[in-house]
Design goal:
CATH architecture of the largest domain: 3-Layer(aba) Sandwich
Distance between the termini: 64 Å
CATH superfamily of the largest domain: Response regulator
Largest sheet: 5 strands, parallel
Number of helices: 11
Number of strands: 5
Length: 226
C-alpha cells in the first residue's frame, strides 16, 4: 500500500512538471477571469494569479516565476511594453503575450525589441487565443499577418538583406502562423526531430539566436512582402 501511495505521489509530481503556470495582468476583472477560465479549461495550465496593474503583476511574477505572462497593453500604471522590458531584463525565460483590445500595430517594433513572444487581440476567437497561447508555450512567436501589422513593423525601411531557400521561406511562414513543431512536422511529413534540427540550422544561417529575432528579420525581408 505504501509503495502504491508513493507511486501516486511520483505521478502527481510528474503531472505538476507538465502543468504550465500563467499570470494574467488586466485591469478588467471580468475579462481576466474569463481568460483564466478559458485557458485552464482548454490547456494544461494553471493561472497562478490575476493582477490589475503592472507593478502588482511584476511583484507576483517575482514571487511565482510563471512560464507565461498574458498582459493587457494599456494598464493603469504602465504599458505592456514596459512590463515586457522588465521581464526580459529580470526573468528572460518567462514568455510574454500582449493581449489587447486596442490596435498596437504602431508599437510592434518596440514590442519585438522588448522580446514579446506573442501579440493577440481580445477580439480573436477563443480557438485562436487558445492556439496562440499553446504555440507560445511550445516556443513559437505569434504575430498577426495583416498589411497593417506589416506596415507597423517595416514602415518605410528598406528590406533587410536575407537569403533563404524556398523551403526555408515556407518554414518561416509556418512559424509566423504560430504552428508548433509537431504541427509543422505533420503538415510537411517529417519527424519532429528533423523539423527542430532544420529550424536550428536555419536560425544559424540567419545569424539569429531564436524565434523572436528570426521573425523580426523575416518580417523586414523581401520574403514577407510576397
Amino acid at each position: 500500500m505504501q509503495k502504491s501511495c508513493m507511486a501516486l505521489h511520483d505521478s502527481a509530481k510528474k503531472g505538476e512538471l507538465v502543468m504550465h503556470s500563467v499570470v494574467i495582468i488586466d485591469d478588467h476583472p471580468l475579462m481576466a477571469y474569463a481568460t483564466k477560465e478559458l485557458l485552464e479549461q482548454e490547456l494544461d495550465v494553471k493561472v497562478a494569479a490575476l493582477a490589475r496593474n503592472g507593478e502588482q503583476g511584476l511583484e507576483i511574477i517575482a514571487a511565482s516565476q510563471p512560464d507565461l505572462l498574458l498582459t493587457d497593453y494599456k494598464l493603469p500604471d504602465m504599458t505592456g511594453k514596459d512590463v515586457a522590458e522588465r521581464i526580459s531584463k529580470c526573468w528572460p525565460s518567462i514568455k510574454v503575450v500582449i493581449f489587447s483590445s486596442i490596435d498596437v500595430s504602431s508599437v510592434v517594433p518596440q514590442l519585438l525589441m522588448a522580446k514579446v513572444d506573442g501579440i493577440l487581440s481580445k477580439e480573436n476567437s477563443q480557438h485562436t487565443i487558445v492556439h496562440a497561447v499553446s504555440s507560445v508555450l511550445d516556443g513559437f512567436a505569434v504575430i498577426p499577418r495583416t498589411v497593417d501589422w506589416q506596415m507597423g513593423l517595416c514602415g518605410q525601411e528598406e528590406a533587410v538583406d536575407l537569403e533563404l531557400s524556398d523551403k526555408e521561406v515556407a518554414l518561416m511562414r509556418y512559424i509566423l502562423d504560430g504552428n508548433t513543431i509537431e504541427q509543422i512536422a505533420g503538415q510537411i511529413h517529417m519527424s519532429k526531430r528533423s523539423v527542430d534540427n532544420w529550424i536550428r540550422k536555419m536560425y544559424e544561417k540567419m545569424g539569429v539566436k531564436g524565434r523572436t529575432q528570426a521573425l523580426e528579420l523575416f518580417l523586414k525581408s523581401k520574403y514577407y512582402a510576397r
